[in-house]
Amino acid sequence: MRIEAAFDSLTISSLLGRIDFIPTRGEIHLLAYLASLLSVYARKGEGASNWGYTFVATPGGAPFSESLEVEIQELVSKGAYTIVGTSIQLTPEGSQLQQALSKLNLARDRFDYIDSASATVYALPAGLIRAAIARDPDLSLVAAHRRSRVLTSYSAMARLYAEFDAVADVLGEANGSLFAASVLWITYLAEQGPSISE
Amino acid sequence: MIDYERLQNLAQSLAVPTAVRSFPDGGDTSIRAVYQTCRQVFRVIDPSQLGGPVVIFSRVHQDVEEQPNIGTPVVDVNGLTQYVETGFTVEVDSSTNALRLWVREPPMDVWELSKSGVVFQHNHGSERFLISQEEVSLPRLFAGEQSIFSAPHFADLADALAYYSYPIVRNSECPILETVWHDKNRLFLVEKPEAKIQRSLQNFLHFTLRSDAEVMREQNVDASHPVDIRVTFHFSNRVALIEVKWLGKSKHSDGSQATEFTAKRAVHGAHQLACYLDRFAGSSPSAAARGYLVVLDARRKGLTDETTTTNHENGMYFAHQEIEFEPRYEVERNDFNAPFRMFAEPICS
Fold first, then answer.
1. Is A128's CB within 8 Å of B141's CB?
2. Assessment of whether the complete model's pTM goes beyond 0.90
3. Are strands B238-251 and B189-190 parallel, antiparallel or unpaired?
4. What is the pLDDT of residues A79-117, one digit of tens each?
């Protein structure tokens, strides 16, 4: 079991459960990726390489993690998730596992990022978050070239740092709020011109 | 290159940064609690049925004079449906997420209430936050949407297309579709409106389809044939090919007629889509493709180049006239969805 991936997936499902939102697998990948970027925002100067697992971008500009996907499938087979149409729903066993994993040190390190990424769905529609994320510096590069590649590459990090510096700057005293940073950055990206696929 | 000024304006105008800035010691938690409660409430309440305002608030400070009326505990959000006609107010405790209810009016003036926390107000389709006596309006994704918290999202493409047909296309309730008309009464389309119609549909699907769907325009089905929109569903081998056609008359910018497309155009589109599906099956045999024909129908009866207005009889003449497709691919093959004819209403005098 890759503990980080299991914790992230179960915690995203648990937090979204508060608004009766049953995520699809793609939405779990999306929010875990957003959480990893929020960790970059909070720990400027560090890449997302210490997130615990990596993401690639699909040719259309969606984030995908092989480790996360393997873990989700394992959680389904263990009964922590049940499949509901195209979504995966946390079972009581899954909730218990999430609570057990929450007590680990690694959970304390990453909970705020997962929490703020998930809370972004409270404020903005998931489709808008997906469309916005497709315009992030790394994913838009991939979509432009129509091929998969590993995300949070050095080539895109400089632009990402510049965007996050600007986000922190305009937030001023509120820049310690990951939720505010996430909503502001996603809204900004969503408003930027036509999608790369247009 | 980041647009710093735009980012700065957003930071000033969005509710979350405003709440955190106004209440550094608890604004983040309070606005999360309010957002969470809004999602819960509008999941069970249809905003179009509301007969009165809905107020949802969370106090950061308890320094405002306590009211003798402390409201009633809410055990189950579903119970709020009984107050749809009157409207209601809910306070959420940001530390416990416990809810308290006041039927109709809030315990005090909402403007006053916002001095001590985050207040959300929905009133006849208009939504705003009041935060420390600052007003923050909430954006709409689509013109006809009653609440941002009830914005549609779909797992099924056919459901999304049905919603796009009505009310979005029917009433041109989309900023892009508003620009496909040559005249204010929506009689003639602009010259070559295809790209705008495709972009409107792509954006709609982008925002409303659940996140496992990837929506792309003008994708080749084989080495040389592009379909208007392709939707790829991750985590499965499902692919949707969408061909978009329009019917009606278009005009050049100088007012002269550009093109007229009749029902034959839709029939041709169905044939074209069937060919694309065949080619796609040849080039991507492992994918399970399904075809969707979308026909934006802007036909009006009795339209001449000089027409500037229409009455209900002529304007709505084609509203319920279905197109006879021959062959009926949706019957003959199992990879072809029944066509979506989407009638776009004119403004009738």
1. yes
2. no
3. parallel
4. 999 998 889 999 999 999 999 999 999 898 899 999 999
Tell me how crowded residue B348 is: count the other CB atoms within 10 A of its CB.
16
Interface test with A, best of B5, B8, B20, B242 (most A CBs within 10 A): B20
φ, ψ of residue A21 to 5 degrees: the values are -105, 115
Q: Does the pLDDT value for residue A145 go beyond 80?
A: no
Please, what is the Cα angle at B317 between B312 and B322, to 5 degrees? 145
Say whether pLDDT at B18 is over 70. Answer: yes
Q: Which residues of chain B make contact with A122, given a CB cutoff of 8 A?
A: 32, 35-36, 38-39
B36–A26: do the CB atoms touch at under 8 Å?
A: no
B116 vs B137: which has the higher pLDDT: B116
B340: helix, coil or strand? strand
Helix (H, G, I), strand (E, B) or coil at B227: strand
CA–CA dist B221, B227 (Å, integer): 6
Q: Could you tell me if B148 and B159 are in contact, meaning their C-beta atoms sit under 8 angstroms apart?
A: no
DSSP summary character for residue B174? S
ipTM above threshold 0.95: no
